[in-house]
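Worked problem 6 (solution included).
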Amino acid sequence: MTEAPRDLDTLRNQIVARHDELSPRLRQVAAYVLENPSEVGLQTLAVIAQRCDVQPSTIVRFAKAFGYEGASPMQRLFREELINSVPSPSYTTRVHQFQERAGQGEPWRPAQLLEEFARNNVMALEQLQDSVSPDALEQAVDALERCHSIYLVGLRRSFPVVAYMAYALRHVDKPTHLIDGLAGMFHEQSSMITDRDLLMAVSFKPYAPETTDIVARAKERGATIVSISDSLLSPAAREADISFEVRDAEVMKFRSLTASFCLAQTLVISLAQRLDARTAD
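Solution. The predicted structure is:
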């Protein structure tokens, strides 16, 4: 029998690593567990099953697949983290609360929408600060500094983030290439990636297959991959050496990029400081 993880980080890592071997139903549970940790710790088995669109027995099977005797011991890990961190309601929970309010009554006035967008972006930034690992940030900046060239890919909603990074990185002493697929040249623009380079992949639902293909190609060539995504189970995150999970603000299903831009700026400016310090020495 598989030994049950004793801490949440180990459980999360195992869920990501074993995702492909899980049944479709267990994958639904995996996605919910990773994206809604507060709810897993606080809600009953029946509520979690309803939100996963599975039977309660499926939650139990999921827990047993990772070595627990049942769902309760797994949920205990999530509750312990909640107790130790003493958090406010999760960002996901607060978004759901707003969406319930917004779905009723007359259309919101512009000033009301501005207030909600601002409030949700503040929550997203707080979530970012709490969830991003300082060690992962250091590792990512180390990798950016160490690599020969930086390649950037992000399509659809992700494109503004990598476009900003391409602009900012070209002001520091680091060769940078933006893979934008102009004239359909995704393959040509990524064909020079080597094991000396780094690929920064930004990808949000619905995940662009072109990004997935470029990440796979870079992985085959031994390049370092850093991902910014909305789930540890995204195609880019699962192939990445270093991955960042970002929950951007959402109002009435319109998502902003404030938290993603904040993380991108942090990485770029941290790299710039490193390179400036190296030049000064």
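Discussion: The chain has two domains: 8-85, 134-280.
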